[in-house]
Design a protein that fits this description.
By secondary structure, this protein is an alpha+beta fold. 52% of the residues lie in helices and 18% in strands. The strands form three sheets. A three-stranded antiparallel β-sheet has the order 1-2-3, with no helix packed on it. Strands 4-5 form a two-stranded antiparallel ribbon. The chain is rod-shaped, with a radius of gyration of 39 Å. The relative contact order is 0.06.
Length: 185
């Protein structure tokens, strides 16, 4: 990786934007910044080996009606230790200058996190608006279908009434025809 941001014994955002790797002295790994090569050097000082475990702590929300309509929310660790500001050293000019860089990086991380939270809020509000519109449209469609069903049933009822009236009229005319024939005779 190039342009690695280093604070103390922590490598910032090399693996992922939200992942910092901290080397613990218990692992037997000495981590140091090499000013000549402008890189972070690690040296295994023991035969002890360790494992780096990365866990995805993001939260996944189902925000749509269909599969894979998800929203993933991931928030970085904003503790003073994670930001590297818990042990700033102001005793010498060099450490104070380095502390300014550490604090600037911490401010950048917090600002970036706040921007992400704002975008998450906007995305969730937009999703809510879309789902509300879809729900309204679905209810309107259901209402139109119900209205069409009622109109169809009313049409069937009127048709049956007309057929009954026509049948009664034809039967009455047939009865009159028989009476007229008997009168003629």
């Amino acid at each position: 990786a190039s342009d690695i941001s280093v604070t103390g014994n922590v490598i910032h955002s090399v693996i992922n934007q939200n992942v910092d790797v901290e080397f613990d002295s218990m692992l037997g790994i000495a981590a140091s910044w090499d000013e000549g090569s402008k890189s972070y050097k690690t040296v295994n000082t023991d035969s002890y080996s360790g494992t780096i475990h990365l866990a995805d702590n993001s939260i996944k929300f189902q925000i749509g009606a269909n599969e894979q309509e998800n929203f993933i929310l991931d928030l970085g660790n904003m503790s003073s230790h994670a930001l590297g500001v818990d042990a700033v050293n102001l005793t010498t000019r060099e450490t104070a200058a380095r502390s300014i860089t550490i604090i600037d990086e911490a401010i950048d991380k917090v600002s970036t996190q706040r921007a992400k939270i704002g975008s998450y809020i906007n995305t969730l509000e937009q999703s809510l608006d879309v789902l509300t519109t879809q729900s309204t449209n679905l209810n309107k469609s259901l209402s139109l279908i119900n209205d069409a069903d009622i109109a169809r049933e009313t049409l069937k009822f009127v048709k049956m009434n007309i057929m009954n009236q026509v049948g009664s009229s034809v039967l009455a005319q047939a009865n009159l025809l028989a009476e007229n024939v008997s009168r003629l005779l």
